[in-house]
Design brief:
The chain is an alpha+beta fold and 160 residues long. Helices cover 28% and strands 30% of the residues. The chain is elongated and about 55 Å long.
Length: 160
């Protein structure tokens, strides 16, 4: 673990980290999250009966677009040349709800963890927006990094 926070200068002020001297390497990040809902809402999504349209496709596109715009949303993130972004949404009867997984890749000087987390977050918000007419009690939860590959800090994989 780093001995100091990298987004703070010696005076404690926020700064964007200078990654100019770092080598370009292949980077991957995978994030997950869930939208919990009533079983009836899940069935409406499954049946394609939401008034706003195809919930899963719209949320997938929103998540991919969000990954590409992360540096516009998170002030100290570097704009990155994303080489691949994929967002999948799966209906889960056990939750009940939607499980969202985002995978983002680049070849660059810094990782794409924030891009994957942003993709999941915006996809989850989009599911909520698309389904809120049917249910306002949905919960967005458990957004987390599950895998990171590449870079100086090495690889990270969690069990869930």
């Amino acid at each position: 673990m780093a001995s100091r926070l990298t987004h703070l200068d010696d005076s404690g002020r926020a700064r964007m980290v200078d990654v100019g001297g770092k080598p370009d390497t292949e980077r991957l990040a995978v994030a997950k999250g869930e939208v919990l809902m009533k079983r009836e809402t899940l069935e409406l999504i499954r049946a394609g009966q939401m008034k706003k349209g195809d919930v899963l496709t719209v949320a997938q596109i929103a998540g991919i677009a969000a990954a590409k715009r992360t540096s516009d949303l998170i002030p100290l993130c570097h704009p990155l040349p994303i080489t691949h972004a994929d967002v999948t949404l799966a209906l889960d009867d056990a939750l009940p709800g939607v499980v969202i997984t985002a995978s983002v890749k680049t070849t660059g000087k810094t990782g794409v963890e924030m891009e994957a987390l942003t993709a999941v977050s915006v996809a989850a918000l989009t599911v909520y927006d698309m389904a809120k007419a049917a249910e306002k009690t949905m919960k967005i939860q458990n957004i987390r990094l599950v895998e990171k590959r590449g870079g100086k800090s090495g690889d990270y994989v969690t069990a869930t």
